[in-house]
Specification:
It is a single chain. A hairpin with a 2-residue loop joins strand 3 and strand 4. The longest helix is centred in the N-terminal third of the chain and has 12 residues. The chain has 255 residues and is an alpha+beta fold.
């Protein structure tokens, strides 16, 4: 089983330009009319651009129609971000801001304590408001995205759901303190961070469960919502299937 992320966009050309120039993704395929995906999502048409960074893949999809979305905060269950690895977060932070990124974190990149992995992190939004993160690890990691993090109101329900899809809980920590507040752009943050790993080496999922501020239950996202990222799992499924997890995040099982 392998995993990649698909992200809805309102202006495909502009967002392709941002992800290429701000984050160094490369375009590997352009699909002018993906009729099968349009039928699955309930769209009239879908245009799709496939991007690659290192060994990781990101699909940008422009659907017609597209539904606008609020800028969800980390403790709202609709929140989902993509965490990009970097070996120089100072330079990467300045570069994404120069290309139109919108900060979520306050006071720039944040050095998290040893209990949180000693990573340096910065959260931001792309020019259409969808969240991303830069991560610099103590030991360099290959270029690409490390994981996609999704907010959840019920840890057990989410772990049980993803276990049925082949994910295994491989880490569980609690992030709190001033650096975490600044990273999330929130106050008095205490959050469970649960790592869910697929069967094969690939980007993984992280569950974000905010104890403080308390989780906010978001309305269930339409597949055509600008905020509706999709977790794409290439699995042993015989047919393509669209699922929602307990918090409404979208998953596509693909043969």
């Amino acid at each position: 089983m392998s995993l990649h992320i698909a992200r809805n966009v309102a202006n495909l050309a502009a967002m392709q330009n941002f992800y290429e120039n701000a984050i160094s993704f490369q375009t590997i395929e352009v699909i002018e009319n993906d009729s099968a995906l349009a039928a699955l999502l309930g769209a009239e048409t879908v245009k799709r651009v496939v991007l690659q960074l290192g060994a990781t893949r990101l699909d940008l999809t422009q659907t017609h129609p597209i539904h606008p979305a609020a800028n969800y905060q980390g403790n709202e269950t609709a929140f989902q971000h993509i965490a990009i690895t970097t070996s120089n977060i100072t330079a990467a932070h300045a570069h994404v801001l120069a290309h139109g990124a919108i900060p979520i974190s306050t006071n720039g990149p944040q050095q998290l304590p040893k209990s949180s992995g000693s990573v340096i992190a910065f959260k931001f939004r792309d020019p259409e408001g969808q969240p991303l993160e830069l991560l610099q690890f103590p030991e360099p990691k290959p270029a690409g995205y490390d994981h996609s993090a999704i907010s959840t109101a019920n840890i057990s329900a989410s772990i049980n759901f993803y276990a049925k899809l082949g994910f295994v809980e491989t880490a569980h920590g609690i992030n709190t303190g001033p650096a975490q507040d600044a990273l999330d752009g929130l106050t008095h943050v205490t959050a469970d961070i649960i790592t869910l790993s697929p069967a094969h080496p690939t980007p993984h999922l992280e569950l974000l469960h905010y104890r403080s501020p308390a989780p906010v239950i978001s309305p269930r996202l339409s597949p055509l919502s600008l905020a509706a990222d999709r977790i794409i799992l290439n699995s042993l499924a015989k047919t393509t299937e669209l699922l929602h997890d307990p918090d409404g995040h979208l998953i596509i099982l693909s043969p």
